[in-house]
Amino acid sequence: MYFAALLARTEDGWEASDTELDDVETLADLADLARESATDDEPVLACIEQEGEWFGVVRVEGEDDPRVFVSDAAAAMRSSYGEILLSDELLGREPENPDALDQLVDLDGTEDGEPESKDSPDAGGAESSEGAPIGPLGDASVLADLGMEDKALLSLAPEDALSEIADALGCTDVLEAVR
């Protein structure tokens, strides 16, 4: 079970909306969804929690790249919603290269192929594609200018996190209305 909401700052305060992530496949899709809720270039927060296991916050402002914080990357990696937040860039790995598939198979049988480099995933030196660090990952200062310092964000328990964030932002009532 997961809960996802968008918190959009407006001239009159924060507005919250419950959101479905079924059609969201990438962080860019989530950022676009958040931008649709924005008023001018005010921040929009996409908040996700999954069964008290982990929570994530994505901050979108205008056309800037989204800023992401995930409370436990390893737990989030086991969730399809968490995988949306865990981009290759955030995990510190090279993006997958579809052209590399052409090098895997020798179709005409005339070449032996390229030798495996020590940097390739199968050579034992790289992290597996499922690998993610246990614990927090991302921009812990994502909410600092909105009332929640990074130390406070890092100390939140996943089951209470979104309520605590809403308290710090002064929008508990609007978040609870969509919960």
Question: Can you walk me through this structure?
Answer:
With 179 residues, this protein is α+β, with helices and mostly antiparallel strands. 26% of the residues lie in helices and 20% in strands. It contains 7 helices and 6 strands; from the N terminus they run E-E-H-E-E-E-H-H-H-E-H-H-H. The protein has helices spanning 27-36, 73-77, 80-85, 88-91, 150-154, 161-169, 172-178; strands at residues 2-10, 13-18, 44-50, 54-60, 67-70, 137-138. The chain has a 6-stranded antiparallel β-sheet, sandwiched between helices. Strand 3 and strand 4 (54-60) form a beta hairpin. The chain is globular. The chain starts with a strand and ends with a helix.
Brief sketch in words of this structure:
By secondary structure, the protein is α+β, with helices and mostly antiparallel strands. It is 26% helix and 20% strand. It is built from seven helices and six strands.
Class of secondary structure makeup: alpha+beta
Percentage of residues in DSSP E strands: 15-25%
Query: Widest sheet: strand order?
Result: 2-1-3-4-5-6
Biggest sheet: strands, sense, closure?
6 strands, antiparallel
Question: What's the rounded overall pLDDT mean?
Answer: 84
Radius of gyration: 19 Å
Question: Given the C-alpha coordinates, what overall shape results?
Answer: globular
Helix content: 25-40%
State the end-to-end CA separation.
13 Å
Quickly count the helices.
Answer: 7
- Quantity of strands, as a count: 6
Order of helices and strands: EEHEEEHHHEHHH
Low-confidence stretches: 100-129
Sequence-ordered SSE layout with sheet pairings:
Elements (H helix, E strand, L loop, with lengths): L1 E9 L2 E6 L8 H10 L7 E7 L3 E7 L6 E4 L2 H5 L2 H6 L2 H4 L45 E2 L11 H5 L6 H9 L2 H7 L1
Antiparallel strand pairs: 1-2, 1-3, 3-4, 4-5, 5-6
Helix pairs in contact: 6-7
